[in-house]
Amino acid sequence: MDATLSSSTAVEATPKKKSLARFAPTAARVFMGLVFFVFGLNGFLEFIPMPKDLDPADPAVAFGVAMKATGFLFALVKGTETVVGLLLLANRFVPLALALIAPVIVNIFLTHAFLAPSGLGMAVMLLAAELFLAWSYRAAYRPMLAMKVNPGS
């Protein structure tokens, strides 16, 4: 019996190797936070210059112009991006931030898939980060995905 105790103690005393994968959710969260905070703010402050050779007949350009022409949609999307970026960077209300930004990411992905394929790489990276983080925070979404819930419970 003493031999069993001493061998189990020796196993517990050896430090476990830590995987770098434990940093993946943080890296994905910071990546998304930076992208959405910077590009959200850019929608208001325009500190990243627009290319001079934009073709107004290009469907992606026409889509952006139409969003601005509504008077509210562009500001709503960019405001959402900015707030979500801040929440992700501050590591606050992350599941809520991911839920708020999900439709924006789907729109970004579909816009680049069908209208502007040159930006598809970044769109795929954002979609992958969103899906990975949603999976990482799946416990927070479990109550929301219940088939039947009584109000107030």
UniProtKB/TrEMBL annotation:
Protein name: DoxX family membrane protein
Keywords: Membrane, Transmembrane, Transmembrane helix
CC terms in the record's Gene Ontology section: membrane
Parts of the chain that traverse the membrane: 26-48, 60-77, 89-110, 116-137
UniProt superkingdom: Bacteria
Keyword Acetylation: no
Record's bilayer topology term: Multi-pass membrane protein
Keyword Protein biosynthesis: no
